[in-house]
Amino acid sequence: ALLKKHPQKQHIKYSVLGFGSHAYPDFCEFAKQIDQKLRTKDWAEPITELFTVDDKSAPQFVTWVKAWCQKTGVELATTPALYAKKPKGLQKMMVLDRTEVNEQEQTFMLTIRTPARTKFTSGDLLAIYPADDNRERLYSVARCNGNVQLVIKLHQPGLGSEYLNKLKIGEVFKARMVSNTSFHRPKNKAVAMIGNGTGIAPFLGMISQSAKNADNRLYIGFRKETEIIKQHKVFLEKQVANSKLKQYQIAFSREQNHCYVMDLIRNDANHLAELLKDGGVVMICGSLLMQQDVEKALNEICSEINGNNLSFYKEKGQLFTDCY
């Protein structure tokens, strides 16, 4: 849309370099789409092919640097070691508690103590470096009783999840907190929290940190009911009793009466439309596929009931997302 809106009057040479991780679907998809669109413009001339970098790979980045230098005559360093710097600001953190995985339960929870005076809140990110190199894995956190709480799905192989799953109670590891202000619960707003799977993590903390009589509603989806989800339900019931959560709804896609998060949203269409109309906020955390389906459902609801599509509320800052 921006390329159509702002056609260039001068000839522009460009190179597209995408950063991503093959651990996630649609690797560097945004970079690929930008490259494809630019190639349709008569004012744009590519001076290199599309390059992509997986997991901050310094050798892959240097491949692009060499191509760029050759085409432009600009001299840049081409030694991978100069770009493969280890992250700064790592802190020692300790595992205080954890749950275990088994054949029926591939999701586990970690409670982690950060150093004193570490500033963070629910929705921020914990950055870990499992291979002690530049490869980074980020996990959305809940702040509960001053500690970090994570909800992690074990993937095999999975660089980050396997590393975290091997940590024992009392074990110390190095990580850092990353502020994620675009996914903090706004104060004095009605909030609908929507997610699936491990996307529940930051919402647990946000609800716990809320003041009494906060207008929080949770719509969350899982495949099957497991022991961890039963623990979540006990926690959520306490928050309802403490007036920090107005209601919660859970969808199970693989149980007998299966349904999905989108079904919960459509069933509560009037409330969600009214929430957005009144200036409330929708927060989405979980898989990208779920996000796409949820946004599509919300767009239909807003268009039918409010006469505005979802982009109207996005532009007003009423939609927060943290999906992967």
CATH architecture of the largest domain: 3-Layer(aba) Sandwich
How many distinct helices?
A: 11
Tertiary shape: globular
Q: State mean pLDDT (0 to 100 scale).
A: 94
CATH superfamily of the largest domain, by name, is: Nucleotide-binding domain of ferredoxin-NADP reductase (FNR) module
End-to-end separation in angstroms reads 24 Å
Helix/strand layout:
Blueprint: H1 2-5, E1 12-14, E2 17-20, H2 29-38, E3 44-46, E4 51-54, H3 58-72, H4 80-83, E5 91-98, E6 107-113, E7 125-128, E8 137-140, E9 142-144, E10 147-153, H5 159-165, E11 172-178, E12 191-196, H6 201-209, E13 216-222, H7 227-241, E14 247-252, H8 261-267, H9 269-277, E15 281-286, H10 288-306, H11 310-315, E16 319-323
Parallel strand pairs: 1-3, 2-4, 12-13, 12-15, 13-14, 15-16
Antiparallel strand pairs: 5-6, 5-11, 6-10, 7-8, 7-11, 9-10
Describe the protein.
With 324 residues, this protein is α/β, with parallel strands linked by helices. The protein folds into three domains: 2-83, Rossmann fold, CATH 3.40.50.360; 91-181, Translation factors (Elongation Factor Tu (Ef-tu), domain 3, Beta Barrel); 185-323, Rossmann fold. The chain is 32% helix and 26% strand. The strands form four sheets. Strands 8-7-11-5-6-10-9 form a seven-stranded antiparallel sheet. The two termini are 24 Å apart. The mean pLDDT is 94.
